[in-house]
Predict the 3D structure of the following.
Amino acid sequence: MLEKLKDICKNALCEINECQDLKQLNLLRVKYLGKKGPIQDAMKVMKDLDKEQRKVLGQVSNETKNDILEAIDAKTKKLEKQMLEKKLKKEAIDVTLPSFKPPLGTMHLTNQIIEEIEDIFVGMGYTIATGPEVETDHYNFEMLNLPKDHPARDMQDTFYITEELLLRTHTSPVQARTMLEYNGVGPVKIICPGKVYRRDDDDATHSHQFLQIEGLVIGEDVTMSDLKGTLEFYVKKVFGEDREIRFRPSFFPFTEPSVEVDVTCAKCKGKGCSMCKHSGYIEILGAGMVHPNVLGMGGFDPNKYQGFAFGIGPERIAMLKYGIDDIRQFYTNDLRFNRQFNLKY
Ligand code: FA5
């Protein structure tokens, strides 16, 4: 029996030595050390042996098991080391190779045009104000002389979140917020760029989300000619010295008088063509003198202070400046479109 165990051990060590993968090694473990293995089988004669013989057989069978186990453990470590070395060799990186150049992004045209307009107004002494995009009915409408159920609310179809909360339809609520911050003491000279939202159907000139830049000036001697001079300066800076503006009477509940501002057409320079529908002019923004009610609600004494305000649509400015024929181009993120206007960076 002892000879048989010796043979089993010899065979096992030989097979373990030749084994070349971990899966096969595990099968050998089961084969030799499992319940149905040859060592367990050899132990079946135990019951027919006397005490001394049993002791010797038990000792030898334990030694055999330990020898096989040790050989399997040593082989496992060896195979694992070999596998790791193979993997490391395969995945080795040549750190001296030149790396890939990540493609460089560019500033989006809407951001460029906003920066350009901001620079013009900051150069005239304006500071930049901000306000929330999720706005209250109170600031978006009521503080701007648009009480609930006022018919002019229809001019700006609104995304309501609750009855009191909405996505701002214009940047004009920042006028009201700014006035309250100044506690009725002028002068005020701010612009506010930001996103606005309207339930407009998207088409070539309308988007349900677009940008506006609000302007607000309050002082003790502010007149309509200050508004005109400011906008004329701005238009010439953006479009060129040869462009003229004109005021057309309009209506906004928060300004009185109110105007739409047109600029001479880029194509025909005011003579009239198909682009400007033969009027010679293209509309670019809404503006007016701040309504006394709005000044009053904002904490300014309308007998002491006057102000003007305007609301620019920067996408429409960019469209006119760069000949873009569809506002949806700004929001579809076609990189070929975006890359054309990498003017600044
Ligand atoms: C207003 O939103 C006023 N709050 C502007 C204003 C401010 C007037 C201060 C007086 C004093 P209006 O709805 O006309 O006005 O919008 C202003 C500009 O936003 C438009 O001239 C246009 O350039 C742009 N605009 C309006 N609706 C859209 C739209 N759906 N998509 C893209 N641009 C738009």
